[in-house]
Amino acid sequence: MSTRSFLIPDPLYDYVADTWIRDVPVLAELRDETAKMEEGRMQISPEQGQFMAMLVKLMGVKKILEVGVFTGYSSTVTALALPDDGHIVACDVSEEFTAIARKYWRKAGVENKIELRIAPAIDTLDNLLKEGAKFDFCFIDADKPNYAGYFERAVKLVRSNGLIAIDNVLWHGEVADASNQSRETNAIREINKMVANDPRVEACLLPIGDGLTLARVK
């Protein structure tokens, strides 16, 4: 819902972006192309991408599960952080948006690390469970009403001490507005309560981007 950390005032955000964002040209190019789209606000912020790439490196991640690809920014930035034998299973339903993602995966030289599965993500996750797949890291950033279902499956698909990251958990502040009873807002409230009280994970919420929850699977 936000391509920048909305909790930071504009002048301070500009300072953070100018001082701390370390881009490779392909990521800046992808952001620029996506920003011109009507749905461009769906892309994660660059500082969030940089943070996730750091997590991938610090954890020694080799296998990533991504639920929601859009134009491929999160998959590209995390694939660049993976070792040469790293692998991402990326789930989406849009051929249109993921065609842009494929283009930038090729430009970034990470296409061989990413396996795109075009199907409803619930179906893909259920199939992965049947396959006995295990992942080190999972990033959930897709349709909000299905967040609870994605999380429930992710807990089973991510290894012990692996990490689940859930995007948009502050929903641009709308979660705190009791008058907002939209389906999407209530879905975010549901997943926030669900994760915070789930004994299978240890979780924290970070005020980065549009709010990012990190849940370590016990």
Question: How many beta-strand segments?
Answer: 7
The percent of residues in helical segments reads 40-55%
- Average pLDDT value? 95
Give start-end ranges of low-pLDDT stretches: none
Q: Specify Rg, calculated over alpha carbons.
A: 16 Å
Biggest beta sheet summary: 7 strands, mixed
Share of residues in strands: 15-25%
Structural class: alpha/beta
Count of alpha and pi helical runs? 8
In order across it, which strands form the biggest sheet? Answer: 3-2-1-4-5-7-6
Q: Give the SSE order as H and E letters.
A: HHHEHEHEHEHEHEE
Distance between the termini: 29 Å
Q: What does the overall shape look like?
A: globular
Report on this model:
The chain is of the alpha/beta class and 218 residues long. The protein has 8 helices and 7 strands, in the order αααβαβαβαβαβαββ. It has a 7-stranded mixed beta sheet with strand order 3-2-1-4-5-7-6, with helices on both faces. Strand 6 and strand 7 (212-217) form a beta hairpin. Helix 3 packs parallel to helix 4 and helix 6 packs parallel to helix 7 (147-157). The longest helix is centred in the N-terminal third of the chain and has 14 residues, at 46-59. It starts with 9 loop residues before the first helix and ends with a strand.
